[in-house]
Amino acid sequence: MDLDARYLLCPMPVIRVSDAMARLAPGDTLTVRCTDPGALRDIPAWCRLEGHEIVAARTEPSGDIVIIIRAGG
Cα–Cα–Cα angle for 2, 58, 7, nearest 5°? Predict the structure, then answer.
């Protein structure tokens, strides 16, 4: 599943991730694209609390931040 959270500021990217993750089965992945630099801290912290795994996190040359999350069980 893909989630476009670009141009949203804290805490909206995390809220959108939470909503999207609620619709996934364990093992499914969510690819989040955002622009808020705080998301690189906030989304992994939320995932640790909720039992999800960060598969990858990177900043692209465009400035977009891409975070891939695997749903925990």
Answer: 60
